[in-house]
Design goal:
- The complex is a heterodimer of chains A (294) and B (307).
- Chain A is mainly alpha-helical and 294 residues long.
- Chain A has one domain (12-285): ABC transporter involved in vitamin B12 uptake, BtuC (Orthogonal Bundle), CATH 1.10.3470.
- In chain A, 70% of the residues lie in helices and 3% in strands.
- In chain A, the strands form 2 sheets. Chain A has a two-stranded antiparallel ribbon.
- In chain A, a hairpin with a 2-residue loop joins strand 1 and strand 2.
- Chain A is globular.
- With 307 residues, chain B is mainly α.
- Helices cover 76% and strands 1% of the residues of chain B.
- Chain B has helices spanning 2-21, 25-48, 56-72, 77-99, 104-124, 151-174, 176-186, 188-193, 198-224, 234-247, 254-273, 277-291, 295-306, and strands at 141-142, 146-147.
- Chain B has a two-stranded antiparallel ribbon.
- The radius of gyration of chain B is 19 Å and the shape is globular.
- The two termini of chain B are 14 Å apart.
- The chains are: A mainly alpha (294), B mainly alpha (307).
- The A-B interface holds A 43, 91, 94-95, 98-102, 104-106, 108-117, 119-120, 228-229, 232-233, 235-236, 238-239, 243, 269, 272-273, 275-277, 279-280, 283-284, 287 and B 51, 53, 98-99, 101-102, 104-106, 108-110, 112-114, 116-117, 120-121, 124, 234, 238, 241, 245, 275-279, 281-286, 288-290, 293.
Chain lengths: 294, 307
């Protein structure tokens, strides 16, 4: 068998593929963070909590209402997105005139409330969500056996990421959104309902997190702490990519997932920390982030 | 000013009399350690304008170093505490040097990520005892003279350390160095244009804060006799922010009041409501940010000004 540095190529490719699955989640989550931050200057710490809520919504819908995977893929993000709009209207909106740090603190508290409640309601053991029948089975790629579901995750996330990018960079709605980022009072003077736009953006951003949650439900255990460790990694991804850039957050999310996968082969002990080490290196060499502008 | 002096006098008398009042000394020591931790954190957030979301890294790793030296190598109490504190100073220099390259929310996210790195190192390093942590850390004695086994002796040692930290921070804030930090907090570009090497000031403030946080962590490991992962957790970083916020950011006594409120709340609530403590802490966080940004001491000071 072909080897590189004594490691079979098949193993490397296999871990790269699994890393790409993780990277898909990083990309979707950091994309949502970037969209929210771009317009609202709020670092949404509750992103991981909304991700967990998405997964739990899908799980509960299946167990109690018999709503299957495909419907949940639409309904769970919708429900969580609506909840996000409520949160924005009730809480976040009071902080826009203040230092952005308060937004981070508020959403941190919110994450504690959501994750603590989930923990109280469902315990800490976690539950599994079945892979939908249409996506069961495996592809034999020659060098590895790839479960169809994981391939679907990668495909779905790439589609979601690039359509979000397209909406923001290439449509009229996206142009309005970017205008609000540049100069909200002026846009409001032109008759655009900016508060509505802001609320919808927050809803959309957390809906993306919930969608990632539903997608991840069949590959991980659905548990209350599934988002809290992930969100720190995603923050590091965002620092590496540069928060202002939609495209940057997608690319760095996918790339870092693959690097993490590769580390699992070469030096497994470091796979948990490699993203943070890369972040430190980026800060030394290019403090504004790889795609950042400031 | 006179009211403040009277208050400090009363607070000092109370602190000295604690062992006579029948208050559980271990609880008071834990409270004082967290108060020290919050004061150290406030030096950074309140007086230099930097929000670190990773201070648990300093608090926790100092506890590990102290505990490891005292158990596995039989170091004396004071050398072990000094070594733990020095370790967190070094860690603070490393993390601080990276984090001050960005400001505001990026600074917060970077400190959080680097603290997570420290957490994983503590989880996997050979000397930390993994998930179990280090158990049975001996309190030892002060230079072989005063045995710290008794809670009362230990209490007065922790109280002395706390007072030292409190007075030291006041000194730092009122010094020319502290004034420059304030200038940087208020208007960074202006401080630059006045010729201050702001990165050096920020780094020194960061290292100071990390060092004092480490002292608090070292002492806590001695008080409770163990060092575990819960001290390095992100939740602990959040807690110290909450203490500072509840008490009053940028006030001297605020972090102490905040630590008292939060530690007491947790101590009594965990018996009453069990796991809901996290939810309540989160709700307090949200309420503080929305309604109560000046904190207890800040609101009181504002009230007095209005009169």
């Amino acid at each position: 068998m072909t080897q590189v540095f004594g490691i079979p190529v098949a193993v490397i490719l296999g871990q790269l593929m699994l890393g790409l699955v993780n990277g898909s989640f990083y990309a979707m989550l950091s994309l949502g963070l970037a969209v929210i931050f771009g317009l609202m200057r709020v670092v949404n710490f509750a992103h991981g909590a909304f991700y967990a809520l998405g997964a739990f919504a899908a799980l509960l819908a299946l167990q109690h209402l018999g709503i299957g995977y495909w419907a949940a893929l639409v309904l769970a993000p919708l429900a969580v997105g609506l909840l996000g709009i409520v949160v924005e209207r009730l809480l976040l909106r009071h902080l826009y005139r203040l230092d952005p740090l308060y937004g981070l603190l508020l959403t941190f508290g919110l994450a504690l409330v959501v994750e603590g409640s989930l923990h109280q309601a469902f315990g800490s053991s976690g539950e599994s969500y079945p892979v939908p029948p249409a996506l069961q089975g495996v592809f034999n790629l020659g060098f590895m056996i790839l479960p169809i579901y994981r391939a679907w995750v990668i495909l779905a996330s790439v589609i979601v990421c690039f359509s979000t990018w397209f909406v923001i960079e290439r449509t009229r709605l996206g142009a309005t959104l970017r205008a609000a980022t540049e100069n909200a009072p002026l846009l409001q003077a032109f008759g655009v309902n900016v508060p509505l736009l802001v609320a919808a953006t927050y809803g959309g951003g957390v809906a993306l997190a919930a969608l990632a949650g539903v997608l991840s439900a069949p590959v991980i255990l659905v548990s209350s702490d599934m988002g809290s460790s992930l969100v720190v990694v995603v923050f590091a991804v965002v620092v590496i990519g540069g928060m202002g850039s939609i495209f940057g957050s997608i690319v760095s999310g996918l790339a870092l997932g693959m690097i993490e996968g590769l580390t699992k082969v070469v030096y497994p002990e470091a796979s948990n920390i490699v993203v943070f080490v890369i972040m430190a290196l980026v800060l030394i060499l290019r403090p504004a982030g790889l795609f950042g502008r400031d | 000013m006179r009211a403040t002096r009277v208050f400090y006098l009363l607070a000092g008398l109370f602190a000295l009399a604690v062992p006579l009042l029948g208050i559980y000394p271990v609880f008071m020591m834990k409270l004082l350690c967290f108060a020290m931790f919050a004061c150290a954190f406030n030096l950074l957030l309140g007086f230099s304008g930097m929000l670190s979301f990773g201070h648990a890294a300093f608090f926790g790793s100092a506890g590990y170093v102290t505990g490891w030296l005292a158990t596995a190598h039989g170091w004396g109490t004071l050398p072990a505490v000094v070594a733990g504190t020095a370790a967190s100073a070094l860690l603070g220099a490393g993390i601080g040097a990276l984090a001050i390259r960005r400001r505001g929310i990026y600074f917060a996210m970077i400190t959080m990520a680097l603290a997570q790195l420290v957490y994983f190192v503590c989880l996997e390093a050979p000397f930390t005892g993994g998930e179990n942590g280090l158990q049975g850390v001996p309190r030892g004695s002060v230079l072989g003279l005063v045995a710290l086994k008794s809670d009362v002796a230990m209490y007065y040692l922790v109280l002395a350390a706390f007072l030292g930290v409190f007075v030291f921070i006041r000194r730092v804030v009122h010094s020319p160095f502290g004034q420059v930090l304030k200038a940087i907090r208020e208007n960074e570009p202006r401080a630059v244009s006045l010729g201050y090497d702001i990165n050096r000031y920020k780094l020194v403030a960061f290292v100071l804060s990390a060092t004092l946080a480490g002292l608090a962590g070292s002492l806590k490991a001695l008080v409770l006799g163990f060092a575990t992962l819960s001290d390095v957790l992100q939740a602990n970083s959040g807690e110290v922010i909450l203490m500072t916020l509840v008490g009053g950011t940028g006030t001297f006594f605020g972090p102490v009041a905040g630590a008292a409120v939060v530690v007491t709340l947790e101590e009594y609530l965990s018996d009453l409501v069990g796991g809901w403590v996290t939810v309540i802490i989160g709700a307090v966080f949200v309420a503080c940010v929305l309604l109560f940004r000046r904190g207890i001491v800040g609101e009181l000071a504002a009230l007095r000004l209005r009169r």
